[in-house]
């Protein structure tokens, strides 16, 4: 069964460092998303990406964040200068073309900022 | 903005008992509604979805949910709880006229006792 894969599964970094989280969406999907879940809190939308550009972003997705689809398979989230409050589980998701299609989520990348 | 409210952050049931997890939505346009489950240290897995077809939706693992427009609800039920149902359950909404983000509720943690 096709699945969304994310790397790394866990990353520990120092405050102020740059972090790149990687995702390989399901191959024929066209919509891509990043969500985050701070420990004990709800899953929050960060950004959606379609046709090589950002479709929608939340207030959380400030100038410190960027997304990119550098090739035909990877979808990355970059945090330019990490802060303590960026510590969270980051989920990548993808969706096919059908408007009623559900999002398929990866298993997440846990980011710990020290 | 479209949102969901999950009543009860923790629900405890006995094995074999009825499971009822509550979700109410707020949407200015007909919504698409989803229930996702998150097992410990795993990603989000779709249980079921409502996309304006049948109001009673059956999902995986014996779960079902009923869309009630008059009550703006989409409660998740299962007739008989199993120990393996213990997990975090998230209700989510996406407006039918949007291709983009899901908005998640805060989640309900289901505990199943022997």
Strand content of chain B: over 45%
Q: Which class do the helix and strand fractions of chain A yield?
A: mainly beta
Radius of gyration of chain A equals 13 Å
N- to C-terminal separation of chain A? 37 Å
Instruction: Work out the number of β strands of chain B.
Output: 11
Tell me, what's the shape of chain B? globular
Point out poorly predicted stretches of chain B: none
Molecular structure report:
The complex is a heterodimer of chains A (114) and B (114). Chain A starts with a strand and ends with a strand. In chain A, strand 5 and strand 6 (53-57) form a beta hairpin. Chain A has no helices and eleven strands. With 114 residues, chain A is mainly β. The mean pLDDT of chain A is 92. Chain A is globular and about 40 Å long. Chain B is mainly β and 114 residues long. Chain B has strands at 3-7, 10-14, 19-26, 31-38, 44-50, 56-58, 64-68, 73-78, 87-95, 103-104, 108-113. The radius of gyration of chain B is 13 Å and the shape is globular. Classes of the chains: A mainly beta (114), B mainly beta (114). At the A-B interface, strand 4, strand 5 and strand 10 of A face strand 4, strand 5 and strand 10 of B.
List keywords for this structure.
heterodimer, A: 114 residues, mainly beta, seven-stranded mixed beta sheet, 0% helix, B: 114 residues, five-stranded antiparallel beta sheet, 11 strands, 56% strand
Describe how the helices and strands are arranged.
The complex is a heterodimer of chains A (114) and B (114).
Chain A (H helix, E strand, L loop, with lengths): L4 E3 L2 E4 L5 E6 L6 E7 L5 E8 L2 E5 L7 E4 L6 E5 L8 E8 L8 E2 L3 E5 L1
Parallel strand pairs in A: 2-11
Antiparallel strand pairs in A: 1-3, 3-8, 4-5, 4-9, 5-6, 7-8, 9-10, 9-11
Chain B lengths: L2 E5 L2 E5 L4 E8 L4 E8 L5 E7 L5 E3 L5 E5 L4 E6 L8 E9 L7 E2 L3 E6 L1
Parallel strand pairs in B: 2-11
Antiparallel strand pairs in B: 1-3, 3-8, 4-5, 4-9, 6-7, 7-8, 9-10, 9-11
């Amino acid at each position: 069964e096709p699945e969304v894969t994310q790397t790394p599964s866990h990353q520990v970094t120092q405050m102020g460092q740059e972090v790149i989280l990687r995702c390989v969406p399901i191959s024929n999907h066209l919509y891509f998303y990043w969500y985050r879940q701070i420990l004990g809190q709800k899953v929050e939308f960060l950004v959606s990406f379609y046709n090589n550009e950002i479709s929608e972003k939340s207030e959380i997705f400030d100038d410190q964040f960027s997304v990119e689809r550098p090739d035909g398979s990877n979808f990355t989230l970059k945090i330019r200068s990490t802060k303590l409050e960026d510590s969270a589980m980051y989920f990548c998701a993808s969706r096919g073309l059908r408007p009623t299609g559900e999002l398929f989520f990866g298993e997440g990348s846990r980011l710990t900022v020290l | 903005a479209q949102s969901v409210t999950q009543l009860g952050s923790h629900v405890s049931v006995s094995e074999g008992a009825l499971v009822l997890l509550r979700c109410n939505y707020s949407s200015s346009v007909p919504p698409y509604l989803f229930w996702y489950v998150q097992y410990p240290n795993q990603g989000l897995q779709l249980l079921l979805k409502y996309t304006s077809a049948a109001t009673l939706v059956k999902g995986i693992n014996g779960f079902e949910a009923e869309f009630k427009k008059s009550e703006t609800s989409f409660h998740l039920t299962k007739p008989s709880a199993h120990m393996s149902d213990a997990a975090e359950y998230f209700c989510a909404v996406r407006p039918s006229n949007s291709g983009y983000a899901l908005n998640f509720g805060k989640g309900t943690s289901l505990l199943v006792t022997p």
